Amino acid sequence: MEKYGNIPGLETPVSRIVYGCAGMKMLKGEPADVQLDAAFEAGINAFDTARVYGESEKVLGDWIKARGNRDKVVIISKGAHPVFTRNEDGTVDVTRRLSREEIRKDIDTTLLKLGVDELDVYLLHRDDLSVPVGEITEWMDELVKEGKTRVIGGSNWSCRRIADQRAYAVQHGMQLFTVSSPHFSLARQDEDIFGDHCVTLTGEQGAEARDWYRAHPVAVLAYATLSQGFFSGKWHGGDFHKRKELMNEMSLAAYGCGENFGRLQRTEALAIRKGCTPSQLALRWLFTRGMNLFAAVSSENPDRIRQNWESLDVELSQQDADRLCGE
Length: 327
Prior knowledge:
By secondary structure, the protein is an alpha/beta fold. It has a single domain, classed as NADP-dependent oxidoreductase domain (TIM Barrel, Alpha-Beta Barrel). It contains 13 helices and twelve strands. It has an eight-stranded parallel barrel, surrounded by four helices. It has a two-stranded antiparallel ribbon with strand order 1-2. Strand 1 and strand 2 form a beta hairpin. The longest helix is centred in the C-terminal third of the chain and has 17 residues.
């Protein structure tokens, strides 16, 4: 398959595998040259970070400055994430931050941390349905006109809300959202483990969105593409009967259904026949779903990073791909 694709509004081709910069080292602000070099040398030119990813933006920016490769990389960042405050009784208060002031504060901090003048892609990390989409469109359009970012979009926005944004932008001659970042993987996600109504394209609830993305020119930047390690070798297809012993509470609720273990079992068997890993096969499967998809995946292991990139070389027919997910 083609290893690079196009995001509407960007001239630079974007690697189908995107390096996710939310690893522990980058979150803590520790140098990450080894893994960033491994990703770049493998062929990955797109890096996904966010204002809430600790010191990730600074670590990425320091690496870009040291390597002098700003013109060779695609920088994706996200902002306006809500603040979650856990109370003593276990409840969580959510403070919304989807406002012009907070968006501008976040992107200016992001640019400063990264040490760059302009982002390639800037995404709103969450939606807030109480804020009119027209206002949001106007705020984001300003950022593009001011040269703070080339392309805009949303993370964990519903396809209907993105459609509303695009309709408003067309009507008023403003910048359209051309990137959406939902959860998507071969494993069906039954419970939102990230909180605050995160969006998944998996399962029956994601069918409408999958069809929408197939029909519209909006790039899908999928996150948690290996479903918190479900296909990494932590568990095996035959482990369903002991899943409660092996999986933590969140992973069990999200991915511990029998259907997912069946998919894992089929993936393991096919991976043996193809001479690849289950993780590689699960990543390769994403690109058989008919969307303009880019897969964000994170690892601090250089060998695993290279394996993730090499997943694009795995030969996978549509028939075999459909069998993996039972379609």
